[in-house]
Amino acid sequence: MTAAEPPATTAAGAPEHVPTRVFPDAEPASVWVAGEIAALVRERASLDRPCVLGLPTGATPISVYAELVRLHREEGLSFANVETFNLDEYYPITPDELQSYHRFMREHLFDHVDIDPKRVHIPDGTVPADRVAEYVAAYEEAIRDAGGLDLQLLGIGRTGHIGFNEPGSARDSRTRLIFLDRVTRRDAASDFFGLDLVPRRAITMGVGTILDARRVVLIAFGEHKADVVAQAVEGPVTARIAASYLQQHPAATVVLDEAAAAGLTRYRSPWLLGPVAWTDPLIRKAVVWLARKLEKPILKLTEEDYNEAGLQDLVAGRGPAYDINVDVFRAMAETVTGWPGGKPQAMKRPGDIDRPADAVFPKRVLVFSPHPDDDVLSMGGTLLRLQEHGHEVHVAYQTSGNLAVFDADAIRFAEFAQDFNRIFAISPEEAAKIERHIEDQLRRKRPGQVDSFEVRRIKTLIREGEARAAARVCGIPVERLHFLRLPFYETGTVRKLPPGEADVAGIAALLEEVKPHQVYAAGDLTDPHGTHRLCWQALQQALARVKGKRWFRDCEVWLYRGAWQEWEPERMDMAVPLSPSEVVRKRDAIFKHQSQKDRAMFPGPDEREFWQRAEVRNREAAKLYDRLGLAEYEAIEGFVRWKAIAG
Ligand code: F6R
Q1: Is 304 considered catalytic here?
Q2: Residues 303, 309, 312, 313: what is their CA dihedral angle, to the nearest 10 degrees?
């Protein structure tokens, strides 16, 4: 066992109080969970008994439902003996609304399998307020009448909620009407196209209702869940984190992808659990962990520091401490480069190290940006440098990002276009017609309703104009900007389609056209709305298509972390420092994305705007390098080299 491969299931000694299985990513995890459900359904069918399932909604179970549908279509899994009870529903809401869990379940599961609609139960968001008490009691009774839940599937909210049992929910709570937590409402804001439109209440099964299930499986995917998962699995049982009650269930399992498991001790500091095989990345991780814990620079860590923190094994095998310190220090210092595209031999100074990237200069560089602002948000400083060093920099904007544009902006630009056309006498009738249509559409639009094609086009133009303005700040010529408008994004709702042939083919064609020496892409383990993950999936498939090509042999693929987080310092393979004036130029570039300013629509967990978060994160990365004793810069952008194909 190595820490690069921590045990897939809870190991002896781990402080995990619920058996936990970790999969490399969400897909095999979902296949495993669907397989467990299918096995149970089949077993009950063979006994001629019904199978009663408790089901969640949300982003997480979508891939489990997709696999169940596949099993039904391709492997004859029948739902004829299945009875289901959903965990929750917003209140008030009608079943046909875009965000209703009735609609969600039909779209993702029930419309595609042979379940008897009479055996489907989902809390009703239309029950009159004075009948809710009676209604929820009947819901509980219906579960009991069905023989109780055989298996309850759960997701987990960032508040630690299961169902909508928000912090403070009692262990013996039953199905009831609750008020949603602020964080939960914010997380749902993009589904509802605005925080104000998210219902304040919901009907949810209680913690007691959930714990009565004979088996419980909780799934969580993505780095934004890592903290709460660690608290639920390793922390105390507490009403503050409803999911921690699963520790008291005799047959509960937690199923995670590696991103969601990152906060567990077996990933964060596996050496505390027993002997590990010390690989270079693991040594780096341990040393950075120790230096941060003791707030000491790497080179000042002593034998005692290692021994007292549970790293005796490391010093005994690889010591003395000073040698370990120096090795890690050197490796990390070498990651710092102001020349992300390599440094031409002619510019080298004595003491400069030779890097493989120096061999070709200048380079063709292709930056993939999932939304139109991710390029400058995540690697604006690096973009500036690449361009200034004379490389041929292209940026491909993968999606239009039109969902995140306010209606008022669409009207403003439609007016602008009309005035522009009038001034320059360009078919005024046609322009007026379009403007009237836009105004009319937006006036009649109900909250949360999908935009018309025309409105989406205008919103797309707004974002593309902003991307061009930002790229101009970075000095990138507009003819090297590529707006891919990938079809998977164009649903008009936050739910995206899985990337298909058209998405992959579009990206592969661009790769083939540019033949880049370097590719930069967003390598988030998961962003809250899944767009980055899907963009990365599509890009990986496109890279697989070009991997046999001659030009691709020397192509480096670098991953920047999306807008939400920075790579941990020990994982960075390249740290690009920004000077104070580059920080200001990067900010200027981000400011060009005016439609994304003050977006109450997708406020981050800390309510700061995107530019502030980007700046804080770059400055913090630099501070961390400084505290580790490496170098003191104004700000740093970090990258991880992707080796799955290239290397
Ligand atoms: C949904 C539900 C919630 C979600 C949780 C995670 O029916 O009960 O507890 O499971 O909010 O949501 P996602 O999966 O969207 O992160």
Answers
A1: no
A2: -130
